[in-house]
Amino acid sequence: MAGQNGTGLKTTPLYPLYRETAKLTEFAGFAMPVSFSGILEEHRAVRTAAGLFDVSHMGEVRIAGSEAVRLVERLVTAEAGTLSPGRARYAFVLKASGGVLDDLLVYRLGDDEFLLVPNAANIARIVAWAREVRDREGIEADVDDLSPRVALLALQGPKAAAILGRVAAERHREALMGLKPFRFAQNVIVAGVPVLLASRTGYTGEDGFELMLAAEEAPALWQALLEAGSPDGLVPAGLGARDTLRLEAGLPLYGQELTPEVTPLEAGLEAFVRFGKAVPFIGEPALRRQKEEGVPRRLVGLVLEGRAPARSGYAVYPAPEAVAPAGSVTSGAPSPTLGRPIAMALVAAAHAGEPVLFVDVRGRRVPAKVVPLPFYRRSKAPGG
Questions:
Q1: Residue 176 falls in which region: left (phi positive, over 0), alpha (psi -120 to 50) or beta
Q2: Contacts of 309 (CB under 8 A, 6+ apart)
Q3: Which DSSP helix (H) or strand (E) runs through 197?
Q4: Segment (H or E) for 334
Q5: From edge to edge, which strands make up the β-sheet containing 184-190?
Q6: pTM of the model
Q7: What local confidence, expressed as pLDDT, does residue 294 receive?
Q8: Checking phi first, is residue 151 left (phi over 0); if not, alpha (psi -120 to 50) or beta?
């Protein structure tokens, strides 16, 4: 749900709870918490205990009707028709050229009903695109933007399940604790609050849950979860920790690893592209051509020498004396878990297999070991 603060930025339903205590930043037109107690402390809490994130800036777009399956199949790279109600998939919405308009989660709510969760900056784009495709191709389906009425909380970390289990209504506890990754339950009670959808998903590389609920109910659930989880080390966490956590987990961020000029194949995410669906997705011919001709660029992981971090946009070179760059950094930050600067970079395919590349950090070519993604993988996925 979006309100507005005095600066004209949109706000979530939880904004009044932390506007005086959190460090705030502008993100996708929203006033969002970048941190509460500090990025490092929040990052470590999620890796060792749990963190609670306000992600109510994300979108919720409902697609329903007799041909909802057909519309969703046209829009996304995942196979939606084979999803059972109660399951979700990660997917891309593409331009005809194969570039990414957004990456999102697709939830199947019922036989003829789906929910797409796009990134905050792309909500209007995805709603407009879905309606354009529907109208152009004569598909019978409704496209409704639920975002203004819905809030989303993310409870993430190795103790997330234990915390959620303690506050879930007894009649819903078994269903919630039994969820496997990318499964969800609808219309459950958590800490006495009605939750529309509770999914075992997240963006941190840890076990966790995302809880979707009516906007007006969000403050009560936020406060109840923090109170219940405090003995376990649960802390509120902001966008800063969310970014370092997802970077360690090798998860892309729209606008950095993924853009309308980057395809899923270049980003190394072909696993989330289903070629040959009964209803082909928009952009499939372009991706087939790129696959046949060879992907020109590839996303690689880098671990830099020294302490200076790489930042988005820094040039990456194949050798210390090279004149022409091989590509550029898409995301970079010090890794709290590894204790080293890490980065993802999009580089020419000819150089993606090099053992070492060189990042221009403020005029100095810093050696960076090329490593497979992700940088961090949790040792066990509870419930999965």
A1: alpha
A2: 332, 333, 334, 341, 343, 361
A3: strand 193-199
A4: strand 327-335
A5: 184-190, 193-199, 208-214, 150-156, 50-54, 234-237
A6: 0.96
A7: 98
A8: beta
Contact of 317 with 360, CB cutoff 8 Å: yes
Q: Of the candidates 371, 351, 243, which has an alpha carbon nearest to the alpha carbon of residue 297?
A: 351
* CA gap 206, 246 in Å, rounded: 10
**Cβ pair 381, 181 in contact under 8 A:** yes
- Say what angle helices 68-75 and 123-137 make with each other, to 10 degrees: 120
| Helices and strands (H, E) in the chain, number of each type | 9, 21
Q: Which residues of 179-218 are buried (b: 16+ CB within 10 A; e: fewer)?
A: beebbbbbebebbebebbbbbbbbbbbbbbbbbbbebebb
Token digits for 58?
A: 């994300």
Contact 222, 54 (CB under 8 A): yes
Would you call 281 helix, strand, or coil by DSSP?
coil
Question: In the prediction, which pLDDT does 379 show?
Answer: 83
> In whole angstroms, what is the distance from residue 327 CA to residue 343 CA?
13
CB contact at 8 A, 83 and 100: no
Domains, the chain = 3-58+149-248 (3.30.1360.120), 61-136 (3.30.70.1400)
pLDDT tens, position by position, 364-379: 999 999 999 999 999 8
Asked whether residue 257 is marked as a ligand-binding residue, the answer is no
